[in-house]
Amino acid sequence: MATTAFQKIYTKISQITKATCSLKATGVGYDELATIDGKLAQVVKIDGDNVTLQVFEGTGGIPTNAEVVFLGKAPTLKVSDQLAGRFFDAYGNPIDGGPQIEGREVEIGGPSVNPVRRKQPSELIATGIAGIDLNNTLVSGQKIPFFADPDQPFNQVMANVALRAKTDKIILGGMGMTNDDYLYFKNVFSNAGALDRIISFVNTTENPPVERLLVPDMALTAAEYFAVEKNEMVLVLLTDMTSYADALAIVSNRMDQIPSKDSMPGSLYSDLAKIYEKAVQFPTGGSITIIAVTTLSGGDITHAVPDNTGYITEGQLFLRRDSDIGKVIVDPFRSLSRLKQLVAGKKTRKDHSQVMNAAVRLYADAANAKTKMENGFDLTDYDERTLNFARDYSDKLLAIDVNLNTTEMLDTTWGLFSKYFKPEEVNIKKEFVETYWKD
Amino acid sequence: MTKGKVSGIIANMVTLTVDGPVSQNEICYILLGGQRLMAEVIKVVGAKVYVQVFESTRGLKVGAEAEFTGHMLEVQLAPGMLSKNYDGLQNDLDKMEGVFLKRGQYTEPLDADREWHFEPLVKAGDKVKASDWLGKVEENFQPLKIMVPFQQQGTCTVKSIAAEGDYTIRDVIAVLIDEQGNEVKVDMVQHWPVKIAMTNYKEKVRPFKLLETGVRTIDTINPIVEGGTGFIPGPFGTGKTVLQHAISKQAAADIVIMAACGERANEVVEIFTEYPELADPHTGRKLMERTIIIANTSNMPVAAREASVYTAMTMAEYYRAMGLRVLLMADSTSRWAQALREMSNRMEELPGPDAFPMDISAIISNFYGRAGYVTLGNGEKGSITFIGTVSPAGGNLKEPVTENTKKVARCFYALEQERADKKRYPAVNPIDSYSKYLEYPEFQEYIAQHINADWLDKVNEVKTRMLRGKEIAEQINILGDDGVPVEYHVTFWKSELLDYVVLQQDAFDEVDALCPMERQEEILNMVMDICRAEFSFENFLEVMDFFKKVINICKQVNYCVYKSEDYYKYRHELDAFVATRKQTSGNDK
After folding, report:
1. Which ipTM did the prediction report?
2. Is residue A72 within 8 angstroms of chain B, CB to CB?
3. Bridge partners of A329?
4. Would you state the pLDDT for residue B587?
């Protein structure tokens, strides 16, 4: 970003910390961008003529006489159809060797949608994975994260979901992503011939962490362009939001803010909500759906990041390795899609909700039976049957390698009910039992 | 008026240098380009005034001008608020232009042109005081009152009152003479600062009337009363919102105010979309007609989030002063507390537990204290029932917001992860939850008169049975199915029967979602008859099979339209099946 004529240049920095620089300057706007010896920075505090800047790539190597130029604008992205199929860094500069984007320049992190102008989400997003479609159905305009330990294949599942879902654009926001994972996404998308639907904003582990703070806003600004102006169905993938929160913690720490739970800033909830709430069904038909990843440490969902996320998002998808079948499954207990009732039984078959609940209840009975077995108690005939049911249910439905449509999923579940149980053990409305029970 | 200039900015906290007097919590507007950003004074140090801005401060510069208004954050109260959707500062969201919220856009909360059919309730020469009723208008079939300005001092004499007819809210409908002999012109609009509690009633009495919600685990087990307070804490995913929506849809209240405070926008959309279609089970009219929504969703400015719960409470107080029964729901009070924490943090105050401000306990208790059942000046009764949700960090109830709320709210509905995991909804833990109103003699008397005299004994028996059932479940886990006597299994399964049939309720089933008191009584009697009966079994497997079948039939009963043909069919099936195992001796004494 070159300087233009008549810009005031400051050359006297009074304070430098690991992430911020302070200097005396006037006429500076809050949130405004500046360059410090070419490094991009943003105004985070103004006290009289004392201005504090947060330097995205870190302050290493900045001298006290560095040239500081204020750009008079908040971070922006140029939006146009040219974005499609391109890969960018956190600042929105191409990293795929292609030309710069031409288009309208818009500030990122724009205003919120007026809640009364939103429409209720109602389009089912089918993924083929029964742990999602059957138990935790996704709906366009929803925001939902995967809660997963770092060793779980969440990026693969997410890539699968993205490619199977019928959407117009897929926007990937990678934060603290390993270079290998970045290349994985790039390969999967180009092998699937979907590259023209993909837009990526990537901050890899090789880039400075504070840059990550720009990625979600960049991705969502691009998403808003396609959803609002082109009425497209846009799917935004954000991985990994825990890295994003870590960057927030770094900045707030450098600014001497009092940390709240787990060393996270007190504003973590609002900071995350601002991103996730960009998921919306617009009245004109376009929509933004957000699927994110929140990595956990040892499955602990009480940590501030997953905890606050859970309160913001419309459910969560919990991945777990099931030792009985040796596959990764979508855990039916801890997973939840809050919007599923908007489509379950409406866009899918009528028995959907009851079948789903009954299966999960029986799966819970199996978990109790398993505890009994592990404690060395005799199992009843019912216990044995629930255990067998659970094994089949895990393998045929919960496993992430399943690819079925929802009617097939329901039929499969009824098949398992009939194989192992009597109708009164399943507790489903009689009209459904009469129609679907397989004798 | 006092003016100021911006001298510092950190996120939405701005410092101003002022040229005159300002008061704590005074509202000012900061000028940015052509926009006016609303802000509230939160701290004063000499000529330096700290304000929290209700909008984004992006692009704001040192030296920007600010104008003070001389008053605190106020709401305008008049007919025309029902079925409106407001933001936390009482801007009418439907009047805003465009899909996106624009900074500095404030809209009129009331409709100036709409005419109301006014009927006077006083005549010239009458003596009136602040909040006395001067006349009435009807809005959505609710009898609203036009009152003497709440701030009016002393006794006034009515000089003239408008004749019955159609008037707008700004038309003068009465002229009063105050004690000093000055004329006071009264229209339909009241102003009130949101952070100050209205005390325009004669006395606050102990609440005693059951507030029917149609949710069995509340009405039957831990009832809430008109003018009562309750709170619903629970980890995410345990069904807080579903339970709250169920209460707001079904509660027997005249006015329902929903404050969506820092929560998901799509949940508000659900209300916008569904309530205009759904019928109020008590009057048959559309639910939206009695509902006001205050939407300050999680992505809207943080400072306005704090204001939103006060705005909602002030509106509730306005309707209470008319003798109406108001239900106020706030989802979630934790987000409000977090808004306070963010500000306290920016002001560099010394933090209390979990970095919340030290006075969080006082703030919460003052707020809950504004609810209540009151006798008005003219002897009429009005009530505000307040139910707040709490979102405890990590699902741990030992955190400041939950603990401080527990001190003041009289009903506690503890949502439990374990129950939610097992899909036992509503996931209200029957053992930890409580309603203090069960201990109120006034309430006991009311129940004895309106339901029956042994109702509360039965309710207590349910609680004892649930506790016993839990104890036995633990013993069975340790000792194994064969390690405990068969009678233990019977007791355990009786508690399961209570759980499945009384406590659990399908909020998404058309019939089961709403359970009127009459039906709750019948369900409880049906189940308690079985619980109190003696059965004979050879072994625990028989017990399990028997009760599973019983539960299944009872569930079918719950799914049937009350007193329909199917309903009786299943009732008879149940009686016949229960009789197969019932010991006739020992029970018929």
Report:
1. 0.86
2. no
3. A320, A399
4. 44
CA distance A23 to A11: 9
CB under 8 Å to A236, separation ≥6 — which residues? A170, A171, A172, A173, A219, A220, A223, A278, A279, A288, A289, A290, A291
Last residue in a domain, options B72, B105, B128: B72
Note the pTM of the prediction, 2 decimals. Answer: 0.91
Asked if A283 and B99 come within 8 Å (Cβ–Cβ), the reply is yes
Whether residues B171 and B274 fall in one domain = no
Q: Do A270 and B273 touch (CB under 8 A)?
A: no
Residues B418 and B473 reside in one and the same domain: no
Q: Are B170 and B213 members of one domain?
A: no
How many Cβ pairs closer than 8 A exist between chain A and B?
205
Q: Report which of B251, B256, B253, B249 is spatially closest to residue B279, judged by C-alpha positions.
A: B249
Helices A268-276 and A241-254, axial angle in degrees (round to 10): 140
Task: Indicate whether B589 belongs to any domain.
Answer: no
Nearest to B266 among A74, A339, A364 (CB): A339
- Chain B residues inside the 8 Å CB shell of A137: none
A113 pairs with which residues across the strands? B100
Structural domain total, chain B:
4
Domain A9-70, CATH = 2.40.30.20
Same domain (yes/no): B32, B156:
no
Best of B236, B478, B501 to disrupt the A interface (most A CBs within 10 Å) is: B236
Give the DSSP letter of residue A333. T
Instruction: Tell which of B48, B60, B62 to mutate to test the A interface (max A CBs under 10 Å).
Output: B62
Q: Write out the residue range of the structural domain in which residue B433 sits.
A: 203-438
User: How many Å apart are CA B315 and CA B86, to the nearest integer?
Assistant: 11
Domain ranges across chain A: 9-70, 76-339, 352-436
Q: Is residue B13 part of a domain?
A: yes
Of the three residues B129, B159, B189, the one that is the final residue of a domain is B189
Q: Which of B269, B338, B508 sits opposite A269 (nearest CB)?
A: B338
The yes or no reply on domain A76-339 and CATH 3.30.43.10 is no
CB contact under 8 A, A120 and B480: no
Q: Enumerate residues 6+ apart whose C-beta is below 8 A from B90.
A: B75, B76, B109, B294, B311
Set of chain B residues whose Cβ sits within 8 Å of the Cβ of A311:
236, 332, 391
User: Do the beta carbons of residue A289 and residue A125 sit within 8 Å?
Assistant: yes
Same domain, B294 and B385: yes
Interface of A with B in 266-295 (CB under 8 A): 266-267, 269-270, 273-274, 277-280, 282-283
Q: Does A30 touch chain B (CB under 8 A)?
A: yes
| End-to-end Cα distance, chain A | 72
**B305 and B335 in a common domain:** yes
B62/A28 CB distance under 8 A = yes
Residues of chain B with pLDDT under 50: 586-589
- Tens of pLDDT, residue by residue over B296-320, are 988 888 888 889 999 999 999 999 9
Cis peptide before A306 (omega within 30 of 0): no
Whether B321 and B424 map to the same domain: the answer is: yes
Summarised one tens digit per residue, pLDDT across range A20-63 is: 899 999 999 999 999 999 999 999 999 999 999 999 988 899 99
Chain A residues lying within 8 Å of B243, measured CB to CB: none
Could you read off the pLDDT of A330-358 as tens digits, one per residue?
999 889 898 998 999 999 999 999 999 89
Q: What is the pLDDT along chain A (439 residues), one digit of tens a residue?
A: 455 556 788 999 999 988 889 999 999 999 999 999 999 999 999 999 999 999 998 889 999 999 999 999 999 999 999 999 999 999 999 998 999 999 999 999 989 999 999 999 989 999 999 999 999 999 999 999 999 999 999 999 999 988 998 899 999 999 999 999 999 999 999 998 888 999 999 999 999 888 999 999 999 999 999 999 999 999 999 999 999 999 999 888 887 778 888 889 888 988 999 999 999 999 999 999 999 999 998 888 889 999 999 989 999 999 999 989 999 999 998 898 989 989 999 999 999 999 998 999 899 899 989 988 988 888 889 999 999 999 999 999 999 999 999 999 999 999 999 999 998 888 888 889 999 998 7
The answer to whether residue B337 is domain-embedded is yes
Considering only CB atoms, A118 lies closest to which of B57, B103, B265, namely B265
Choose the mutation target among A140, A270, A302, A317 for the interface with B, i.e. most B CBs under 10 Å.
A270
